[in-house]
Give the backbone structure.
Amino acid sequence: MKNKEATLMGEDLLEAFRKTKYKLGGNGPRTVQVLEEAFSEVDGGTESDFYGKGKLIDDFQNKMADFLGKESAVFFPSGVMAQQIALRIWCDRKGLQTVAYHPTCHLEIHENDGLKELHHIRPILLADKDRLISLKDLEDLKEDISCLLIELPQREIGGQLPDFHELEKISSYCRNKGIRLHLDGARLFEVLPYYQKSAAEICSLFDSVYVSFYKGIGAIAGAILAGSTDFTEESKVWKRRYGGDLISLYPYIVSSNYYFDRRIGKMGQYYEEAKKFAGFYNSCHAVSTLPEVPVSNMFHVHFSVPLEKLEPLLIGVYQATGVGLTGYLKSLGNGGCSFETNIGDLYEDVPEERKREAFKLLDQKLSEIIG
Amino acid sequence: MKNKEATLMGEDLLEAFRKTKYKLGGNGPRTVQVLEEAFSEVDGGTESDFYGKGKLIDDFQNKMADFLGKESAVFFPSGVMAQQIALRIWCDRKGLQTVAYHPTCHLEIHENDGLKELHHIRPILLADKDRLISLKDLEDLKEDISCLLIELPQREIGGQLPDFHELEKISSYCRNKGIRLHLDGARLFEVLPYYQKSAAEICSLFDSVYVSFYKGIGAIAGAILAGSTDFTEESKVWKRRYGGDLISLYPYIVSSNYYFDRRIGKMGQYYEEAKKFAGFYNSCHAVSTLPEVPVSNMFHVHFSVPLEKLEPLLIGVYQATGVGLTGYLKSLGNGGCSFETNIGDLYEDVPEERKREAFKLLDQKLSEIIG
């Protein structure tokens, strides 16, 4: 019953994490309060959007098009839907059902092969799963593609980023070769402080852009797909085909707009806090972060001790200090384990002393284990 | 500039309709208040659903499975998504990408050919667009199909229904022939009073069932797909492929549940009111309803006068009586025009005298026109 034990242990860690007074990651629990806060100042007489039309959706789409520096933007219920559609449009235009993306691309590992099953598009996996796509990977590509998808930051490897200059070279290469460049910007807002660029400057390198509102922004759900008007108009046809053109999307639009306004100006703070937070982890024995110095509000934490030993240790730290670090752990092939963390509103509210105390105890317990 | 004039006239009618004090159709405007009312008694600490899991979504899915008499139910953001997926599953199981449905089926006329573009499923159109599908249409079918979709009531022809006995015969025929029967029950709740059957009794004739929560129920958006557990589990795989497996669907689930509880017991009242309402129309010159006697809360109103003449006439009635009948008209090929109406909460609040006054004036003005 190994599986059952593992599950039970996982539930214990989650339970202990939930009970902590101070959580260092995120914006707090995803409760109905998130919606209620977003709607607290909205007049009850405000008219719903209506199958993608109306002032409420138009205003937000225009605001996002401006922010991203694109001609037009369309609100989607999800990024899964928006991105598959973007790739389909670029493939149709070129008449070639081949694209390229990173081996850990969301479309490859989190969407039950929707791109392949619904569109029969063949993805070529560029780079290897532990590093970013480089210009050289593109140059070495033996066959033509309709579209290259680049994810900024590359979430599954801790949220890493290419140099901006490398990105510019990739963009130029694609334009010269007639390859469309699509941005998976699920966490684009979170990397603006590192790049020291506006969203529009980054997006100008791409033909189409997807951004999400429930990662760093912390809204309920929702996505924007932006590009030229002919592109976004075509995406609306597909949005209806997918069943994403709901009679009312306003619960997501209103909350996306509310939390965008509330948090877009905090991305610099999250980034600075993430660097300090990673510093705490890297000061401990048997712990390292990926990347070592974060380039956004997120990073991965790697432990060179097995999950079975780390779980009770973490629970001990939570119970002794009231500080929670993670509710889950993932076993790694190398005998260690890891989890992903990200900075949101909660970090700043935890007293510095509490953080120091928690990491001191964590380091002490880890030292004991590794002897 | 004929088109522009037509549009302006349409806007005038809509504007005049909006200004009326008494609207005879629907549940009132689709404003943010619809959401705020649904959430007014929900505790802010209630946890969101999480990618299709959690108590909030489980409870509603179980409640709907019970109500529909099916083993299992899955909440979808839209019926478009749910129904395409249902047909895809039945086609995959039989290894035959052919289905049959009515020429006015939602999948055929309102979804930008999503079924064909995303699944390459070929629909055979049964019956003709002005009448219901009968057992004979099925018997006359020259080739095998994986699935027959039946819509109850058939919305685009005024919300007509087959006899229940005919439905039973169609169901038996399908079972004998190895054809899956899918119910487009967008307005299923609305026909229970006419059939004098429980939803479960009707659904027992079908292998899979879709119901909607923003028609008669009047919620924000959302759908349920129900069937055997192996079927619904497979639908969840596709729900993720479509990008419908949102991190949070609770804005739709909470409102669907709230308005279901509030209105499911009123369907009998809506049905009785619809019959009286249709009677008012049928008592006027140059007006007839389809069906003549409604079998649900909805029907179509047909005028044998052209749209251009009817619009100013209706505006006059609205302004003189304060009673609003419709905000749009659709030209018909025969020189007349029509609109769709449905009974919701508003009808009962309009004083009987006002209704009589409005229809008396409507009849008088129509008599003058037709001379």
